[in-house]
Structure prediction request, 290 residues.
Amino acid sequence: MHSPSSCKQGSVAVEPFAGGLSGISVCIPVFNEAERIAPVVAEAQAALAQLPGEHEVLVVNDGSTDSTAQVLESLSRRWPNIRVFHHSQNRGLAQAQKTLLAHARGQYIFHVGGDGQWRMADMIPMFWKLQQGYDVVLGVRRHKHYGPWRRLVSWSYNALVAVLWGRWYGDLGSVKMARARVWKSLPVQSTSAFANAERVLLAQGAGARIATLPVAHRPRPGGRSSFVHPKQALRALADLIRFRLRGFPQKQDNESTWTAVETSEKPPASLSADSLPPGQTEVVLPGHLH
Prediction:
């Protein structure tokens, strides 16, 4: 792990890890976002232009039935740093993120939705936070633009994780930025939305240094999130229970790895990606990260 240290913006020397890019891989999963994905990508490009390094934008079209595929192909012709991947059918958020991670080449991974609710400029302070020596930065929404049911599900989800693992992360369903060598190495097994929390918990258990920063959240421009469906919430709950019963994450001998979280709140990415080589995205991480 890196030890947090002071680092002035603009002074950092960014170099690629082996075989990769020196900057950020912006990873965006989309499903039926034909009307919203173009401004999202444009906003990401504008934010990346303000950061050092060579960046890319990866988008997975997760079996969309609208014109999302055509819009993405047009965007990839406009910007050479965009790479588009297609799932022949909808495989869900966890698998879409797995595809994105398998193909990401950046030194840093930025997970963000493609529905227009996130302010891409928030990746800028998150990037600089990583330069202070952290491995993962979690965005914590100042205000969630949710309806009553979604708000209840979100609060209950974060509270249950806090009760079971003794740590309030603030907003596990929000945007995240992490060092790729850390993020790609975690053996996530969940196939539901709990995969987001599982990766954070595995990173914490492996000794990653985690920080949080406040981020903006906009009202959804249109459409509907699949997570509002009770079936999706129940799938996430089932994965959470299975993960807990497996006994993860294991507490490390070094107590400091369990006190590294800085939280600003108290509790209350054209190719076919359907067949990835086995083991391409997940590598079991022994002991502490180095």
